[in-house]
Write a structure and sequence with these properties.
The structure is a homodimer.
Chain A (H helix, E strand, L loop, with lengths): L2 E14 L5 H10 L5 H7 L7 E4 L1 H5 L4 E11 L4 H11 L4 E4 L2 E13 L2 H6 L6 E10 L1 E3 L2 E3 L4 H15 L6 H11 E16 L2 E14 L4 H17 L12 E3 L9
Antiparallel strand pairs in A: 1-3, 1-5, 2-3, 4-5, 6-10, 6-11, 7-8, 9-10
Keywords (chains A, B): Antiviral defense, Endonuclease, Hydrolase, Nuclease
Organism (chains A, B): Phorcysia thermohydrogeniphila
GO biological process, one term (chains A, B): defense response to virus
Chain lengths: 259, 259
């Protein structure tokens, strides 16, 4: 059961947003669980991470100073929410430090909850799919970041995550071959951006709007693709989604690309 | 020997730019050779066309009316220039009609001439390559337009044209495998656009700037890629380059993508 939560932190003194780099935010989040090893281990899965994190301010106003900030946390598997909620709602003294500044978890609000069953059943077999990539998105190939929204890369990534965390699986081979043969980018407006994760380390990814179109009417495959889009609002797409990259918004009232 | 020529036409009465759709311009150009079947046949090669055409006004000011217009004509093979020049420079009464309006070829100016030998020998083994796609560019796959600047699609297309028209060939297999393994998009700023070719027929393509980067230092391959970029300013890239699509500008003083 994917759950989207907003975590609000207060700071003991002002901090520049630009110092809250993705890796710092990632560290803050983990230090919430330092006294709860089991939960920490659940989050630290060896392969695909069962959560994503997003710190909007870093991508919008790096030059500003803040005395509080909000994190978006998405939990992707069914087991995680009760465990994380137990710690975050009921543990006392959830104080962490940000470069020496004390940060205190002030509030926690679930803003979106869906079930895998519901996402799949409620999905329509639409052939036009529109995704907005709100933060830099990329895929890894050897030492390179792939920075084009190739349908195959986008949906294979979503599918892997879905099948890792959902009790209802989507047959991967059929869907991937449908995507490879029938799903195309019909339009896009994208630009790439380089973002500093930590000190010298940078990631390049594309941001912007992408229109996909399926050339073939195949209801089962199309329903699965639309369910993956809904899921993408929790999971994000591509690299480093535990640090705010690959954040996606799905246009439910989707339009087709026509200029 | 690729040659870029500018053809200036005068019109007997004003014509709206939007009525000079790519297919109309293509027709005007061919009607220049209606009395010279041999030249017409040379241009009408069965597979890859040995020329490209570009009508800048259509992509810039479709709403305006004009009484004259300029066409850019690129001839790609060694044999074509003398033949085309003979007709265009020396034939009399090169009058053609544009939707019933008389168009007269008023002047003809070669603006760029290169040899295939010169492009290849003069090429540097640069690893950063920057291309500006000035008009919609796409590649055909079954019924779909592929509208992402995948390195493999861009350079395979250029290579096919080069080898079709150049007396010096570039070994295709080696170069394509170099591109597939080592050439990546390191940055881009693109948007897609739909353009009407004629009546209802439309083409979608991407426009904008694309940065390519080669992860491997391999001088021969890199020299060939840079030569192809120089050639691209004559040949264009992708579909319908005989109608103004896929027009490319190569940034010779190339920068690497860094933001």
């Amino acid at each position: 059961m994917p759950v989207k939560l907003l975590l609000k932190f207060g700071l003991s003194s002002p901090v520049k947003v630009s110092s809250l780099k993705p890796k710092v935010i990632h560290g803050i989040f983990f230090s919430l669980f330092q006294k709860n090893k089991e939960v920490g281990e659940l989050l630290h899965s060896p392969s695909l991470k069962p959560f994503t994190l997003f710190f909007p301010a870093y991508f919008r106003k790096p030059e500003e100073e803040v005395t509080s900030f909000t994190l978006e946390l998405n939990l992707l598997n069914n087991e995680l929410f009760p465990e994380v909620a137990r710690v975050l709602f009921f543990e006392k003294e959830l104080e962490v430090s940000v470069n020496g500044v004390k940060a205190e978890l002030r509030s926690l609000k679930p803003v979106l909850v869906e079930t895998y069953e519901g996402m799949l059943k409620g999905s329509s077999p639409k052939r036009d799919i529109v995704l907005d990539f709100l933060t830099p998105t990329s895929f890894r190939k050897k030492d390179a970041d792939l920075v084009l929204p190739e349908p195959y890369l986008v949906f294979r990534n979503l599918l892997r995550r879905w099948n890792a965390f959902s009790p209802i699986k989507i047959p991967p081979r059929e869907l991937i071959s449908f995507v490879k043969e029938n799903l195309f980018v019909s339009g896009c407006w994208i630009k790439t951006k380089k973002v500093e994760i930590m000190n010298e380390a940078k990631i390049t990814g594309f941001m912007g709007r992408v229109y996909f179109y399926a050339f073939k009417e195949e209801p089962e495959a199309l329903k699965a693709l639309n369910a993956l889009c809904r899921f993408s609002e929790f999971s994000g797409v591509g690299r480093k989604t535990t640090m705010g990259f690959g954040k996606v918004r799905w246009e439910r009232e989707n339009e087709s690309f026509e200029e």
